[in-house]
Specification:
The protein is mainly α. The protein has helices at about 10-25, 30-50, 60-80, 85-110, 115-145, 160-170, 180-205. Helix 1 (about 10-25) runs parallel beside helix 5 and helix 2 runs parallel beside helix 4 (about 85-110).
């Protein structure tokens, strides 16, 4: 059965949740932290439903664990002492969860035999997840060493902006990497963003409505 036709693979709602999480992360108020934590938990659950991860073994412990990490990391980041190790660990854990979800989403997309609207929406959702993942990575390394970026770790709402500006290569303004490590990571993210759009997404769009080519084994002469 073609995964693209499975009712569980509806990536639109996943993209909506990702977008809401990005928008709400712009607010630093306590209520916004609670909303972002809830959205992160919902994001993990939705990813399980959308990618078929709910069929993995052991699915329930994995789902519960990732959901708790995604939600708790936001609270730890908001409530712990500024620029503490716990804040950095929370940032890296959140990045790890989002990286896992991104890989699972890409694997699900690659299983589609026919490229549909859902396939393309899923690819866009994966692209957005890459931006969110690296925003937490940048926040984590800048928390450990605040000389890495021109941003302030006490204002975590600014890091998604920097991450997506880097991902889309639209050009820096007053937000720039200020150390070698952060500059290298920014370059890696920019390369990923360009390759992802120019090859993966563009290829999916060109195959819209058609079956993806498969390599047939050659018959022995």
């Amino acid at each position: 059965m073609d995964p693209a036709g499975d009712d569980s693979e509806r990536y639109g709602r996943l993209l909506v949740i990702i977008t809401l999480s990005f928008v709400m992360s712009a607010f630093s108020a306590r209520w916004a932290t609670t909303v972002v934590a809830l959205l992160n938990g919902v994001l993990v659950v939705t990813a399980f439903r959308s990618t078929g991860l709910r069929g993995t073994i052991p699915r329930r412990p994995l789902l519960v664990g990732l959901t708790l990490i995604a939600a708790v990391a936001v609270f730890v980041r908001a409530l712990a002492d500024e620029q503490s190790t716990s804040q950095a660990v929370a940032s890296f854990l959140q990045a790890g969860v989002l990286c896992f979800v991104t890989i699972a989403l890409l694997r699900a997309i690659l299983r589609h035999q026919v490229v549909t609207v859902q396939t393309i929406i899923g690819a866009i959702a994966a692209y957005a997840l890459i931006g969110l993942t690296f925003s937490w990575i940048f926040l984590g390394i800048d928390t450990l060493d605040d000389s890495q970026l021109s941003l302030d770790p006490s204002e975590p709402e600014t890091y998604p902006d920097f991450s997506f500006i880097t991902l889309t290569t639209v050009g820096y303004g007053n937000q720039i990497p200020t150390a070698t490590l952060s500059a290298r990571i920014a370059v890696i993210l920019a390369i990923i963003g360009q390759i992802f759009l120019a090859t993966f997404v563009a290829r999916l769009v060109s195959l819209y409505g058609r079956s993806r080519p498969t390599t047939e084994p050659r018959a022995d002469n």
